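INFO  loader      accepted 1 record
INFO  loader      residues=125
INFO  predictor   begin
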Amino acid sequence: MTTLMIAFFGFWGGVARLYGTYLLPSPWSTLTINLLGAFLLPLWSEFLGPRLAKNRRWLVLGVGTGFFGAFTTFSSFCLDFVKLIMADRVSSALIYLSISIIGGVLVAWLGATSAQRLTMKEMRF
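INFO  predictor   done
INFO  writer      dumping tokens
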């Protein structure tokens, strides 16, 4: 069941990513999608998923691994970086790289911290 759910939600994550690329030109669509996914994955995995899916671990993993795994992508990030370098847009490439790495870590931390605070707030009530 878990593998099937990962495949099912992976399909929808890929579809969401495709439509997300229509909103902004590359590489900025990749950056935005990856930062959004980096924030939402820990929020889903640590707070929303366990509460909404209750004892359905397959659903938590399906959305986390499947949807967010397909929604965000390391390969597009790398390709966009290389394309900027090859187009001799080195400063844009370095800004893109810095925002992707530092921003990704920061928004993942923010998502995990938000999940932790929401859990603590929930425990008080």
